[in-house]
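Example pasted here:
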Amino acid sequence: AFYSPEKLVRPVQDLIAGTRAVGKGDFGTRLPLPSRDEMGFLVHSFNDMTKRLRRAREETTRSQMAVERERERLSIILARLSTGVIAIGRDLLLRSANQAAGNILGVDLERGIGQPLDALASENPRFERFAGEVTARLAKGEEEWREQMDLKPEAGGARVLVCACTPLPGDDHAENEHERQGGYVIVFDDISALLQAQRDAAWGEVARRVAHEIKNPLTPIQLSAERMRGGYLE
């Protein structure tokens, strides 16, 4: 009388304990097969479910590790670039920036992660001009653009930047709110030295041509003067 109810209840108790263990995240739980009847089929289905859950979690863990490795590689690449790269959300909060971006704009952008562009603009006139241009274009709905941005001397030192902006798509399944909303990536490079070198080269070419134009009439004048000197010196 005691043995029969225990034999019937034991698989149910094991199944309840296994369900609680799975609910706590222990996907390695395996229940012994009591028999080949309906209860045995239920226990077999439970074991198959936990095996699939364990495989899915292992695959998710591997995918997360791969994503983290790619993020680390991307961070290393961005840190070594001489081109400035910043990422902002659709709420215009600074999400990330490499060191080159701060050097070009003259602002410590790493310290400003998570702050709005307007708050950082007050620290540097050059960045204020840059943030104003970016904010104005995004306010007009221009999410993808490429242009040359001239930061005037009154904006904290003459700088000419080549900027490109592209939108980041949102991910509805992402855990991070910023990743779900998406944002923008702005890539820019300082071409002030290049433009100055081009201007110097242009002026050098002008000077060479002017010297050539002056030298052309001077040569026959010199020859005529030497001929007159030789003929009339005595």
Observations:
- Residues 38-80 form the longest helix (43 residues).
- The first strand starts at residue 84 and ends at 89.
- The chain is about 60% helix and 15% strand.
- The beta strands are 84-89, 94-97, 145-151, 159-168, 183-190.
